[in-house]
Amino acid sequence: MKKIIVLVILCFSLSSITVAAAKQEHGQNPKVSQELFGVFMHELFCKNILDSAREFYKDDTLSVTIKGGVKLFEEKEGRYIVKFIIIPHSKLPGKKGKISGTDTLTFRVDPFLLGSGSRDRNSAVTFLHLKHNNSTRQN
Asked: Which residues have a Cβ under 8 Å from the Cβ of 79 and sit 6 or more positions away?
């Protein structure tokens, strides 16, 4: 009987240690995972961001710097809203290095259209709008 009680106590002790270690490992450094998520989203949407900014500014030589992280919101019917803050840089002659201020680009993403049956990514990612955050934009 003593052996059974000792075994039960030993098993319970080992399981509680394992659960505590798993909880500690899971919540160890959420900043790294959020940062990694931001980098992943920047890479994933890089072409969409650049194309949308170039179309808005009517400047095919425009380049952008993505500032900060990404904001992700859930919308109805399994779609998502994704927002990026960018700094557009004009590379037109005479406007070298001109910064237009910071802008927020907003996209709607329908992940169901990204599946294997989708013919192109453009049907899943829709540019909604570009909002100027600063009024430092000069013409």
From this structure: 108, 109, 110, 111
